[in-house]
Amino acid sequence: MVDAIYADSSQQARAMITGQVHRFGSVMQTGDDVVTYSPEERLYHIGSVTGGCIIEDTTGDDEHDSRYSRPVIWRTVASRDKLADTSKNSLGTIATLSQIGDDVFADLTAAAGTSDDSPSAPAQAADNETTDDDETRRITANKGIEKIKDRIVALSWEDMESLVAGLLRAMGYRTTLTSKGGDQGRDVIASPDGLGLTSPRIIVEVKHRGNPMGAPAVHSFIGGLHDSDKGLYVSTGGFTKEALYEAERARVPVTLLNLDQFARVFVDNYETTDLETSALLPLTRIYWPA
Predict the structure, then answer these.
(1) Considering only Cβ atoms within 10 Å of each terminal Cβ, which end of the chain, N or C, has fewer?
(2) Alpha carbons 114 and 272: distance in angstroms, whole number
(3) What is the 8-class DSSP label of residue 23?
(4) 3-class SS letters over 146-189
(5) Beta strand segments in the chain, E
């Protein structure tokens, strides 16, 4: 059936599709452990499969446009920052649906602080697991982003502020870092002329911590902006839903960037960063066959 539906795909791609569908529908069993990653939160969610494969109602006209699900109870979460480097590397290479090794799952369990009587860890993936070039490219790109985020998390708060200022310079602005203490929510000021006399003037707040910023913090930041200002709030710990809503209804344009978003914007603009900025977070370009 896969050969017929995906006749234009390579044999390798069809093998990958077949393997993942078979694993999702038949290999996974009730009681098995499952892990999924939230890049915005840098959290691995750990749960257990509680039932069989279920076909979902679809609205598409294509007879092959079906969706399937497995019911899961999510028990706990593990922070990527608490994992060993070997686990980070292993989890960064997995395909859309893959098995993980006992040692990696044990590391996840320890990072989550769960007890030893949790369901048994999944078996190690087979060495010959098949992926096609598109899947491999996607995996490689996502693994790179996660490793970049690991480096950003390890920066000091002073270096993080400098990195944000460097990103804005790479985007064509001139920046000024404010003096420490009593900055009133202004860590960086960016503008075309560097003096804040030419629009747009961008007021930047940078929070480099593990916890998400809430609505009160974002509300206070917005309150300090002039009507002609643009606001940029960077929080490596992310934002609560209430904080996102606070920014959406602000009287002036305000952009919130969590760690994942900041890393991707930084990568997009890395080629135009200055030496000071690239020294804080050096990256290497990787070429892939077209």
Answers:
(1) C
(2) 45
(3) I
(4) HHHHHHHHCCCHHHHHHHHHHHHHHCCCEEEECCCCCCCCCCEE
(5) 33-38, 43-49, 54-56, 67-69, 72-79, 174-177, 188-191, 201-207, 229-235, 254-257
Identity of the residue numbered 93: T
Give the residue carrying structure tokens 């900025």.
277
Tell me which residue has tokens 């090794």: 101
Residue 52 structure tokens? 């069989």
Contact status, residue 145 vs residue 39, Cβ threshold 8 Å: yes
Q: Would the pTM count as exceeding 0.90?
A: no
CA–CA dist 290, 288 (Å, integer): 6
Residue 253 is classified by DSSP as: -
* pLDDT tens per residue, range 197-210: 788 899 999 999 88
126: pLDDT strictly greater than 60: no
Handedness of CA 226, 229, 234, 240 (dihedral sign): positive
Q: Which two tokens stand for residue 251?
A: 């009287």
